[in-house]
Amino acid sequence: MKISYTILVVILTTLSSLTSDKHPRLSKLLVIIGLLGVPVTYITLRLLILPDYQLVLLLMTSFVTTFISLHSTGYYRYMYGITRYPKLILNTINTILVLLFSSTILLELLVYWLLVDIIIAFTAITLERGYENLRVSATYLVMCIAPSDMALLTLWAILAANIGFYETLLIDITKQHITLNMGPLLSIILLFGFSTKLGQFPLHSWPPIVYGESPSHVSAVLSSVVSKIGLLGYILSTRLFTIDQIAFYVILVQGLISTIYGAFAATLQTNIKRILAYSSISYYGVITILYAIFNLMNISQAYYLVLIITVYHGIVKALAFINTGLIYQVANTYDIYRLGYLFYVSKPATLTGFIVLANLISMPPTIGFFVKISMLILSFKLLLLNPALVVVLIALIIHTVFAVIYSTKLLSVYTSTLPKAPLKPIQLPYEEPLSEYTLGFSTIALSALILWILEYSPILISIYIITTIILGVMLIKYHKTVFIPEEVKYWLTGVES
Amino acid sequence: MIITPLVFLSLLFIVLSHKNTILKYKVIYKIIGYSILATIIILLYIEQFIDIVSLILASSFTIFSLIISTYTLTYMKTLHYPNILEILVDAFLYALIATYTAPNIVILVSTWTLVEILGFMLIKTGEEHSLEGPLTSSRGFLLTSTATYELSVFTFITVSFLALGNLGPNLLLKTFTESISKIQASYIILPLLLVGFLTKAAITPLHFWLPSAHSTAPSPASAALSGFTVSLGYYGLYRVLNYIEISDFSQYLGVALITLGGFSIIYGGVEALSQRDVKRLLAYSTVMTDGFILVLFALYLMTRTQQTLILTLTGILTQAAYKTTLFCEAGLFEMLHETRYMHLIRGVIRSLPVSSLGGLLAVSSLIGVPGTLGFATKIASIYVAFEELSANLDILISVLVAFTLYIALSAVIGVKYVTLYYTPPTKPPLIVRKITRWQQLPVLLLGLTNITLTPLYFHVLGYTWLTLLTVILAPIPIITVYLVAYTASISLKRSEGASTWSSQ
User: Higher pLDDT residue, B415 or A416?
Assistant: First the structure.
């Protein structure tokens, strides 16, 4: 079954990227079937049985990468007139990521993990700028790939030393059947190594460089999906071994520092992609904190919250990063101070920007609101259990407050200034608004799902319903808005007023 | 004894290839000559004159040597080197293989001395012919590397005479496979014994002769010097320390060697990153890799297990495989652009499509892409370090730090080297002459050894798990190289419709 699954995903996505120039519609159909249809079918028919965390990660990956792939079609056709070259590389990465999160034995995990890192470092990052971006690849290789691979290989070496080599390769990683006791050193090596994939504190300087310099779609994949491999690493190492408590304290401290630092640093940037990268560090910090707390205090709510934040962050950051691609397409820059007029050029891009803002500042009908609420509820609960955990509350509050600041900065890209000269709206390829709207409205739809799963109070449900109606009205209003540029008046001398 | 006539026969074929003027026959004679040499090595192993270490090193180096030797033909002709270069390179390679095959100390020392002299002559040839490189490199080689080697070897011979009296000469004539009684030497003599071999292996305080010597020599000679000659240091140490009892202070020696190796890794790696000359970059990365192999060798000295010995051998083979490929490729750059400076070489994937694939395979081995020899060495070293040193926590941590530094620095150097392949967005560099696909073939063959030799040797050594792992992972370097070649050969150009709004 697994072999047919792998072959289907690989063949469909490869065919899709090869046909994307000559048969664009067929190519889109193939990529939707390959990345989204096949995994969902196999899961619903119970042909592929995965534990909950892998299921969540896989579905998120399938959903996000499909729309990133669709979006990139429009982008590359518009920018370079050719889509086959870049799409082959992007779709290869997407395929491997889908296969990585659906792996059931250690061998699959090893192969896909090593392969995806190398391909990203040498092909995806250098896709648009060529060899100039190889220094970015070097940063990624040294600060992210090397430590996390060390951790992965340590995990494998410990298993191989204890239960034999061949047995290790075929071990079922979805089941929790080994409890080897790790010493403090090995525990720290494992968790610290995986934390670099999530850009945590001592090695936190790679995400701004890598996300900031790569092509936007690659940044989207990196931020929303690839970094979550680190979370998979955390979960696997705690399921396969008995990790020493001290390692969780280490990642807790890492997470606290990264959350606060990422939130602060994001507000200071002038490049939209760097803002998003620092904001990602902050979110990864929250994930790390909650995962450490789940293991230290055994609160299952924290674990579910980790999974929800993973999905939320995956979709929102993918949306934000593909939107920066759109901004680059219409304005040719990422600098905030050279932008500010995008509303007059592209209404669809502005709508996406608003949805991202709504999520980041936790405006009600979006999933961001429910995530933040449950985060704060959890941290108050922790405060009652242990007063020392007030640091978690402080970090989460800083994270929430600064999110408002930097997302306002993001919104200023669209509406902060009036254009000096009348601008004509730019016609965008239809794939781009389509995939952005799908990702954007899924954040609203998903919050309904979360309400259903977590059985929240009727107050929250009524808030959800009311705000959704308000949002709908606002959207209709927005749709009817027509921008009329100010008439430029000239004095008799000919000097502009 | 069938071996003596076979030696003469192989020499005869190599001489015949020199005498012939037609390229096709030259290559055929060379193939026959080196095949006979490989047969001799296998026969010697069957007759138990040499052990498995010699067999592995000598036979793999024979394969590399054949390819380098054929590569020399085009290199010499294109760059107008004197005809003696071919003879010198062949003699050098032959002497090197003889050194690794030597059954006892006397033959080892004499062939090694021959290697030193021929190496000096090759560096001298490069010095007189090429435009780049310092003019004192051959002198540095002779005065530092050769002189300290002789010092150490004669110390060893003197010690063995002093310790065993009349038995001395007998000891020197005994083959390595026979069991021997070890010499009790005082620790005062140890620095004298070590210095020559450490200089040969270019370990940090004694590395200064290597970058200039290896970058000045003609490219095939650089390939052999960097790939095989440097490893003679470890080979010699391995042989000599088998005669001398050092178990009392092997722990201290191991720690000292790990420290030296760590410094070599840092120094070589950092220096390599700041080079503009391709061959100097490669030479400094040799210093770095030598530090890594020294750490592996120190592990062997401390534990004396079969596993660590094999690990050291794998390190040597990795270095040989990718260094020969990259140095031969650097020779192709010299032929193509008449320069070795990295900023003048761009877009090689288009001008040298065949050899670039080999070069990319070698670079992936340097970076440690899964499935290559380099990855196997790195993963096996971490695995073995955990297994052997689990009781010795402080040494384990220092070894792991050295490994991490090596993995990180080699990856960065590899990325720096990869820039050569990418197509420039602006004007491409000046191409002096065209190079045919046949002329690029040797580099591709050398590059393929980075992935094909791996499973073979692990299988021979009985390490089935590593064989299996490399076979399973083998598609990864191939996919990676394909995709890198694909990305490097395209340069996306903005289409007409693309907007260029900006707000000034």
Answer: B415
Query: Average pLDDT, whole number, for chain A?
Result: 87
CA distance A340 to chain B (A): 9
Mean pLDDT of A311-333: 90
Q: Residue A181 — φ and ψ, nearest 5°?
A: -85, 120
Please state the ipTM of this predicted complex: 0.77
Give the separation between CA B261 and CA B126, rounded to whole angstroms.
30
Residue range B233-248, pLDDT digits in tens: 999 989 888 888 877 7
Q: How far apart are CA A237 and CA A149, in angstroms?
A: 13
CA atoms within 13 A on the CB side of A218: 32
End-to-end CA distance of chain B: 87
Which CB contacts under 8 angstroms, 24+ apart, belong to A28-35? A28/A70, A28/A73, A28/A431, A31/A66, A31/A69, A31/A70, A31/A91, A32/A66, A32/A70, A34/A8, A34/A9, A34/A95, A35/A9, A35/A62, A35/A65, A35/A66, A35/A69, A35/A94, A35/A95, A35/A98
Mutation site, B458, B501, B502, interface A, largest A CB count within 10 A: B501
Selected residue of B389, B503, B504 to mutate for chain A interface (largest A Cβ count, 10 A): B503
Tell the burial category of A384 from Cβ atoms under 10 Å away from its Cβ (0-12, 13-18, 19+).
exposed
- Cβ of B437: how many Cβ atoms within 10 Å? 11
Q: CB-CB: which of A92, A150, A169 is closest to B483? A: A92
Nearest C-alpha in A relative to B385? A157
Q: With contacts defined as CB-CB under 8 Å, which chain B residues touch A147?
A: 404
Q: What angle do CA B448, B451, B453 make, to 5 degrees?
A: 90
Nearest-angstrom CA–CA distance, B218 and B332: 11
Which chain B residues touch A145 with a CB distance below 8 Å? Answer: 411
| Residue B369 main-chain phi, psi, to 5 deg | -70, 135
| Both tokens assigned to A66 | 């499909």
Indicate the helix (H) or strand (E) that contains A432: helix A431-454
Main-chain dihedrals φ then ψ at residue B245, nearest 5 degrees:
-80, 115
Residue with tokens 């071994």: A241
With tokens 């050279």, the residue in question is: A338
Quick check: B59 pLDDT over 80?
Answer: yes
pLDDT in tens, B402-454: 998 998 899 889 988 988 888 776 677 788 888 888 889 999 999 998 888 77
What is the number of CB-based contacts under 8 A between chain A and chain B?
Answer: 153
Phi-psi region of A362 (alpha: psi -120 to 50; beta: other; left: phi over 0): left
Question: Which of A6, A92, A118 should one mutate to test binding to chain B, selecting the residue with the greatest count of B CBs within 10 A?
Answer: A118
Q: Fill in the amino acid letter for A172.
A: D
Nearest to A80 among B419, B494, B500 (CB): B494
Answer for the pair B377, B464: CB distance below 8 angstroms, yes or no. Answer: no
Across the interface, whether the CB atoms of B483 and A122 are under 8 A apart is answered: yes
How far is residue B110's CA from residue B235's CA, in Å, rounded to a whole number? 15
Cβ distance A161 to B383 less than 8 Å, yes or no, reads yes
Residue A406 burial (CB count, 10 A): 25
Q: How far apart are CA A497 and CA A444, in angstroms?
A: 45
Contacts of A166 by beta carbon, 8 Å cutoff, 6+ apart: B465, B468
Contact between residue A79 and residue B495 where contact means Cβ atoms under 8 Å apart: yes
> In 3D, which of B278, B329, B319 has the Cα closest to residue B297?
B319
- Does residue B484 have a pLDDT over 50? yes
Cβ contact A107–B472 (<8 Å): yes
Q: Please tell me the distance from the alpha carbon of residue A148 to that of residue A136, in angstroms, as a whole number.
A: 17
DSSP class of A112:
H
Q: With beta carbons under 8 A apart, name residues in chain B contacting A165.
A: 465, 468
Report the gap between the CA of A152 and the closest CA in chain B (Å): 11
